[in-house]
Amino acid sequence: MKFFISFLLFFGLINCSAQTFSFSISTDTAYCNAQNNVNHCYSYIGNDNPELLEIDVIRLEQLSLENWGSAMCADTVCYYAIIDSIRINIAPNSNIEFRPGFILINDTTSEVAHVTYLIQDANDSTSQLFFDTYAINSENITSNNNLYIDEQILVYPNPTSNQLIIETELGINSIQLINVDGRILSEWKDLNNINLIDFQDGIYLLKINTELGVTFQRIVKI
Fold first, then answer.
1. CB neighbourhood size of 221 (10 A)
2. Could you point out which of 9, 134, 166, 214 has its C-alpha 20 to 30 Å from the C-alpha of 112?
């Protein structure tokens, strides 16, 4: 079975003054291809020190995954949902690949899958970051078309405390606000300006349905 799945990866640093490792992905939104029916997005954890570094990767939250399976892979070894944490040894001045992955079990689902990881120095809990991954079943959208739509839409200000402006030449059919649990909180039609004053501060996904297809934007309400 072939899956067309888009992954949106977001991460945030916390308590980084003592950070002894680096973390990178190519962009903050990555569209990934299937590998043996598991869709992976590639990120890298780097050891910038002249000594061996131990890193713990902990799966903190796994939400809205009734129709999904998840995995986390370090280099060539993959650990599936039954494993909630792994310890990785990174050689001096080098890096390893860390790949969160999802398997779509029910290809008719419209749910948004979400997993939050905590990545930290095993010997220094103040040196840590949180890494959010989202998987969206975009079966009717090709990756190239989705990337084109992204380039045609500007959402600002982001972060926002209230108003959001969606600037685009494309026709907008509807806009949905989705929380990290995958629940649709509100929907607007034929609007380019939406008000978030009634929603709590936090991270949301904005699902924008245009004349050419659907795209997702990460929104931070402050």
1. 18
2. 166
pTM given for the model: 0.60
pLDDT tens readout for residues 144-180: 455 567 778 888 998 899 899 988 888 888 898 887 6
Residue 142 — pLDDT band, cuts 50, 70, 90? very low
Cα–Cα distances in angstroms (integers) from residue 52 to residues 14, 77, 85, 92, in the given order: 22, 19, 19, 5
End-to-end alpha carbon distance in the chain: 41
> Distance between CA 98 and CA 174 in Å, rounded?
35
Report residue 154 as tokens: 């500007």
Residue 171's φ and ψ, nearest 5 degrees, are -75, 130
Listed in sequence order, the DSSP H helices in the chain are 143-151
| Length of the chain as a residue count | 222
* Residue 92, number of CB atoms within 10 A of its CB: 11
Q: List 101's β-bridge partners, or say none.
A: 40, 71
- Quick check: 181 and 64 in contact, CB under 8 A? yes
